Input
Amino acid sequence: MSKIAVYRKEHFNAAHRLHNPALSAEENAGLFGKCNLPNYHGHNYEVIVRVAGDLDPITGYVIDTKTLSTLIKMEVLERFDHRNLNLDVPEFKTLNPTAENIAVVIYNLLRPKIDSKHDLKITLYETERNFVEYPA
Amino acid sequence: MSKIAVYRKEHFNAAHRLHNPALSAEENAGLFGKCNLPNYHGHNYEVIVRVAGDLDPITGYVIDTKTLSTLIKMEVLERFDHRNLNLDVPEFKTLNPTAENIAVVIYNLLRPKIDSKHDLKITLYETERNFVEYPA
Amino acid sequence: MSKIAVYRKEHFNAAHRLHNPALSAEENAGLFGKCNLPNYHGHNYEVIVRVAGDLDPITGYVIDTKTLSTLIKMEVLERFDHRNLNLDVPEFKTLNPTAENIAVVIYNLLRPKIDSKHDLKITLYETERNFVEYPA
Amino acid sequence: MSKIAVYRKEHFNAAHRLHNPALSAEENAGLFGKCNLPNYHGHNYEVIVRVAGDLDPITGYVIDTKTLSTLIKMEVLERFDHRNLNLDVPEFKTLNPTAENIAVVIYNLLRPKIDSKHDLKITLYETERNFVEYPA
Amino acid sequence: MSKIAVYRKEHFNAAHRLHNPALSAEENAGLFGKCNLPNYHGHNYEVIVRVAGDLDPITGYVIDTKTLSTLIKMEVLERFDHRNLNLDVPEFKTLNPTAENIAVVIYNLLRPKIDSKHDLKITLYETERNFVEYPA
Amino acid sequence: MSKIAVYRKEHFNAAHRLHNPALSAEENAGLFGKCNLPNYHGHNYEVIVRVAGDLDPITGYVIDTKTLSTLIKMEVLERFDHRNLNLDVPEFKTLNPTAENIAVVIYNLLRPKIDSKHDLKITLYETERNFVEYPA
Output
């Protein structure tokens, strides 16, 4: 039988600004426009975690979505929710918190906690109209 | 030209409980928690059927979505809608009606009715936050 | 200053069937069709609670949505979520669990817990296409 | 003929923290919990503006939604979008930017710009699950 | 007991252009811009019909949503779905098919078919961001 | 590091009818039913453009979504929005504007404008329930 994928959606609310500390203020303003404004803005981020693998014939689950939900809450929401990504999250001290980079950081936080025989993919909605997927 | 995929979304309302008849009551309660409560609960299931293949140059269709909608209604909704999956659907007499297993059953019901040269994939939403995809 | 309304949305998953115990089986089948099927079906109910009143100048709140969320969870979700409304909820032992009646029962559960100087209104979505509001 | 209401939905992304400058740090933390964290968090705010009045028989409009959209962009989004409400918006220098207060401020910004014979109402979504309406 | 409101949502796909036949081409272009382009454009209209009244103690319904759905299909969708509102619907031969006017026409089609002791209200979504309500 | 995908969603409102000019009126009516009605109908089309590639370490972007949004507006919305696809868009003079063919045309308009080292995929929603993806 083919693999099956399970998805769990969670959300967090965070402040951020797009800013690469290795660039000058002018370069940052030129690249990121109003997303670079100094006092931050924010989003209701929606994160969808996809775990794909074989069905466990005893449970009928690939992974229990309650387990997956708890894992996302502990590893991601505890770190990010109601926080300022640039100031409060160590990973973004030197890394620009674009949707792409946030998705990669979430992937790296969750990958060691998910059975290595399962595939993992992160979809992150920054707004309803802008979202990213990693790995593609 | 590459293949193109057509999606059709339908929904059904059904009762179920998570329960593996091969396990004891204690084991079921331990594995499935409140999803195992004896008198059932239910969901507004959303099913998205994806059919991928070559474009028919006469119609401009891969498959007519009206045909696909009718097929889903006849093969899936007629069996599942306003039913108790555990009690009313023969496939779940011995199979635990997790979202994963429901998606596999829907796939197996539709696969013989869809042209074998077309790819078929099922996405099933149990809630807005929990959903599965088969094959992954 | 005019009153302001605060809304909090929660959801629960429950089984039910439409059935008036005071009527015959034939009358129930005639009135409620497939919604009367004996083994129940179910829904992802979305409940939106509206509390309207004056703004508290200290907090800037009419009511703290965390307080309101906790209240809905304790009074409504604890009773209804993952339950069979007809079998598990005393209010529906003799009352047909239509969306209308469920909304009235939710209103009556919450009304004594909300400050009497505040207005209360319940909107209940049975599906995305069918919903009710009480009081109108 | 009765009045008719026209609604226009716009959105903005902003940072904020709940904080009443007239209270102590301990009182603010006690009242607002993680919403009071010092480095701000943020939201994708959705604002729905409702204008009700008589139909203009020449245009078939109460108000042109393009006019209304432009007005919301100029008066609200220009001030709030990609901003920190506490730091960048003068109205919230001393006013706690709860959803309730943001809705009142939006109302007060738009009311002088909308024909006085029309009714005005603001609905503001802070998240999909928390929203407010002014006047109620 | 207070009244209760029942809502049913249906949709139809139609072409239209905004055009007041009593005005000149220049006046129409000035008032309606690209909505006046001669070859029509179109929308997925969502119509939400609200019927408010007393609860029937036998059924637990204000009105059966299946009855309401059938009524909307017969009176509205049969006339409007997959049609050109300007060319195919007699009411819009001389009336500009703005969202406001479409909502009024739907109200007038349904009002005689709904029990006069019930209140009736129409909400019409032209897009997710533009919608109207009649009566307000 | 794996590739990452960026998605941008835009929408346009257009009229169309399904009609293959190479077939007779009877054949067209038989194949396309009410979608072939002569005076057109229309849709709120949602188009989601997916660009996948390597992350730029300077910007933290695969592609700036503002750039992508502007590109979709210039290449797609300028041609399609508030237009009649059959009459106003040269590509559909001889090509039936099914969702499948519209997605292919959008792909062909955007492919030369997107860096050739990036993957491109189009998802087009004709309605909430009918959508297509190209390439599959």
Q: What stands out?
A: Helices of chain A lie at 25-32, 65-80, 85-88, 99-110.
